[in-house]
Structure formats: structure tokens, C-alpha cells
Amino acid sequence: xxxxxxxxxxxxxxLASPASAAQEFRVLQLNLCHSGVNTSCYNGAATLQEADSxxxxxxxxxxxxxEICANDLSRLAPAMGNGFSTFAPARRPxxxxxxxxxxxxxxxxxxxxxxxxxxxxxxxxxxxxxxxERRVYVCAEFAxxxxxxxxxSTTGDVAMSQCKEAIALLRGRAVAGxxxxxxxxxxxxxxxxxxxxxxxxxxxxxxxxxxxxxxxxFAANLQYARTEVTRMxxxxxxxxxxxYSRP
Length: 247
Description:
By secondary structure, the chain is of the alpha+beta class. 23% of the residues lie in helices and 32% in strands. The protein is built from 4 helices and 12 strands, in the order αβαβαβββββαβββββ. The strands form 2 sheets. A 6-stranded mixed sheet has the order 3-4-2-1-12-11, with helices on one face. A 6-stranded mixed sheet has the order 5-6-7-8-10-9, with helices on one face. A hairpin with a 4-residue loop joins β9 (207-210) and β10.
């Protein structure tokens, strides 16, 4: 009988929680290391299974994805309610797409819980390192939201230039009062005592929240509520969710 009563209480709490959290707006950032190239953190299908579980548990409104293969979007979309999604491949120096070991294009993606269609804009950063991957951003713009995902260079000063370029790209929209988020793996840490410091690329009205390492979400015109960091076992980065409330 005690077990039945406990289950009943949990169900009732679950029914009440959506109303109390109705104003929440959640942005989830995942770097899945799913290209197959970096074998030290590649775990194949298990990574998508774990990502699916995290998405289902966290129920984000916006999902930012790095180091994924293009077809991963359709695999993860059901956990996001099959909302609007978009993908941008990283580029080789010759302009062609970087590819996963399975042949899919490799890059960054966004999935939204809303089915509304956004205006997509993507691009390469003006400053790049000497490697074989040209870093890119992918964004979707809606009437009431602008959201972007990016994955920056592993060279610190280059990553800083790219971060500043991304903020500058979005700043006009943010200054105009649009809720705006920029999420990703910036390969920069919040380290005021040991640079380069990711905070140095910030510009008002944006503010930044991170996972204690290289993943961050910059936001403007959203009220901060809390940061949630969840350990993941099938990739080399935790899940970073930043919770806001909408104006």
C-alpha cells in the first residue's frame, strides 16, 4: 500500500509541475563527438541513445548540437517533438563539407521544440586557424527569438576572434530587444586568471553562463533562472542546460 501511495503522489506532482514552469525557457547544449574521427571520445550509437535520454529528461525548447553528423538531427528530432531543425556543415579549406567517417556531413545543428519555421542563416568566420576545418555558425531567426549554435577553433586567439565575431553578428538583434541565444563549444574557458578568457568576448546586452569548461550559452533579453550541468558517459563533454524565463 505504501508503494501505491508514493506513486500517486509523484504523479500528482508531475501533473502540477508544467503549470509552475510555464514561463521557463530552456536551452540545452550538447557536443556529441560523433564524427568517428576522434576515437578517444567516439562511442557510436550509444552517444545518440544517451543524448536522446538527456533531451527527454531535460525537455529543452532549443537544442544546440556540435560535432554531429547531418543525419543525427532526424535521430534526435522525436525527443524534441519533431520541431523545426537546421544543420550547417563545417567546411574544408577548399570549401567542401567536412564529413563524418560514415560519409555524412559533419558540423553543427539546431532543433527547436516549436514546429514554426525560422529563417536560417549560416556562415564561416573571417578568422580561421591552419587546420583542415573551417569553423562555422548556424542560426535560425523567428519573430520572437534568434538562436545560434557554433563550435570554435581549438587555437585560443582564433577562438576569441570567432567568439567576438559571433557576438557582433547578433548584437543588433539583441539591442533591438529580441530574445537571442548563442550556444556552443567555444573552446574557451571562463578563466580571468589565465587567458584567453571567454568573458572577454562578451558584449552588452549579452551575458554568459557555462559548464565550468568550454561550453557556454550567451543570452540577451531573457531572464536567467539557473544552470544545470549533467555528466555524460559517451562523449567528452557534459550536457549544459541554461534555464531562463521569457519576457
